[in-house]
Amino acid sequence: MIEQKIIMQSLSEALKRNEDAILALWTERTLDTYESSDFFKKSQDCFANPVGANIREGLAQIFRLLIAGADSSEFTKPLDMIIRIRAVQNFTPSQAVAPILALKAVVRQVFSTDKDCRNLLSELAPFEAEADRMMLLAFDLYMECRERLYKARIRELKSGSYILTDSACASALIRENLRELSPTARTGGCAADKA
Q1: Positive/negative CA dihedral, 142, 44, 72, 13
Q2: Cα maximum dimension of the chain
Q3: What does 29-66 look like in DSSP terms, one character per residue?
């Protein structure tokens, strides 16, 4: 029992010591899943790049909570920062939560390159179990977000407001219709009258 506490304490210290490297790699891998990943990686401005800012902040909070051994309820807010964004994009459910699962591989990669941490690779099971639990919570949040989106879409369809939000611009439709008409109709009269 004492030996297990020592291992957990040294694992926690190793995770804290490598926090910057772990978060940098984890953030990079998460942002790589987006089509505009270069912009999300480069722009640090939270107003110009809210996706990148939320991802960075959410992952950092999740990692710190994991190290601290936080209760499941404390993960909801930072997970929501990430999953809510991914739920409205063209990700499958597995793609949406995959970055959370990637933490385990990231920690293993960072520990493998740190000679002081290599001996802890075999002791990562409790940490990885917590990461799995967090990934399941992320999946639940994803499904809640998708359900809310579907309900909102159904309300739009029932109310008819989708006509306003999904229809093309009226002036664009008029221009398109004019292009399809004959030259006579576009000029507004008979070609002989214009001659």
Answers
A1: positive
A2: 102
A3: HHHTTSTTHHHHHH---TTT-HHHHHHHHHHHHHHHHH
Residue at token pair 């219709």: 177
Residue 25 in tokens: 């790699």
Residue 191 has pLDDT above 50, yes or no: no
Residue 138: C-alpha distances to residues 17, 59, 68, 109, 163 (Å)? 26, 12, 19, 23, 33
Question: What pLDDT score was predicted for residue 169?
Answer: 64
Residue 60 is predicted with a pLDDT of: 95
108: its two tokens: 């293993």
Classify 169 as helix, strand or coil. Answer: coil
Helices within the chain (DSSP H only) = 2-17, 19-31, 37-42, 50-68, 76-87, 93-113, 125-159, 162-166, 170-180, 183-187, 191-194
101, 86 Cβ separation under 8 angstroms: no
